[in-house]
Structure formats: C-alpha cells, structure tokens
Amino acid sequence: MPKITILPQNAAAEVEAGLTLLEAGEKAGVEMEAGCFNCSCGTCVTEVVRGMENLEEPTPEELDVLDQWNKDPEKFRLTCCVKLREGEVVLRQAH
Ligand code: FES
C-alpha cells in the first residue's frame, strides 16, 4: 500500500492507492488546508519533499493554478486533485 508522511508533524499512514493527497493526509490525522476541493483555488498547494514519481501527472488545470501561485510543479502539487499511485510520498505543509 502507498504510504504518506506529512511534515512538520511527521504524521504517517498507509493508505489505499487512488486516494487524493488531501484524503491521505487526513487519514494520517493531519488537518489539511483546502478550499474548493476542485483543483481551482490553490489553497491546498503543498510541497512534495519526496515521491513525486509516485503521484499522478498534473492536469493542465492544476498546472494553471500552480502557475498563478508561482509554484514550481516539480516541487509543489495541489493535494485536492492529485492521487497517490504507489510507494512513499512525503509532503511538507507550510500553512
Ligand atoms: S482546495 Fe482548491 S485547489 Fe485544492
């Protein structure tokens, strides 16, 4: 099963594949920052410290929002719309 870890809390959980990062983070017991839940507001933008290769590729909509927030899509993702595929992913919440 994929594993998610959220920093700085260092909260971790094993979760089923196909959950969004937001859902996986909440399973790890972390209150995840979010607004629209629909890949359009950017409130949920979060740094991916490790495991970017274990996430789905960004959609054009996600890339647009990341661009508006001036966030590099190779380091940051929107947790409400990205699904965990496999392996281990480490996120750092800045909020
Ligand atoms: S909650 Fe709005 S983009 Fe994720």
Question: How would you sum up this structure, described in words?
Answer:
The chain has helices at residues 21-27, 60-68; strands at 3-7, 11-14, 45-50, 76-78, 88-92. The protein has a 5-stranded mixed β-sheet with strand order 2-1-5-3-4, covered by helices on one side. The model has no long low-confidence stretch (mean pLDDT 96). The protein has one domain (3-92): Roll (Ubiquitin-like (UB roll)). The chain is α+β, with helices and mostly antiparallel strands and 95 residues long. A hairpin with a 3-residue loop joins strand 1 (3-7) and strand 2. It contains 2 helices and 5 strands. Bound molecules: FE2/S2 (inorganic) cluster (FES). FE2/S2 (inorganic) cluster binds at residues 34-37, 39-44, 65, 78, 80.
Topology pattern, helix = H, strand = E: EEHEHEE
- Strand % is 15-25%
Identify the CATH architecture.
Answer: Roll
Could you name the ranges where pLDDT drops below 50 across 5 or more consecutive residues?
none
Bound molecules: FE2/S2 (inorganic) cluster
By CATH, the topology is Ubiquitin-like (UB roll)
Q: Can you say what the CATH homologous superfamily is?
A: Beta-grasp domain
| Average pLDDT reading | 96
Structural class: alpha+beta
General form = globular
* Name of the top-level CATH class: Alpha Beta
**Rg over CA atoms:** 12 Å
Q: What's the end-to-end separation, in Å? A: 27 Å
Descriptive labels:
single chain, 95 residues, alpha+beta, Ubiquitin-like (UB roll), five-stranded mixed sheet, 2 helices, binds FE2/S2 (inorganic) cluster
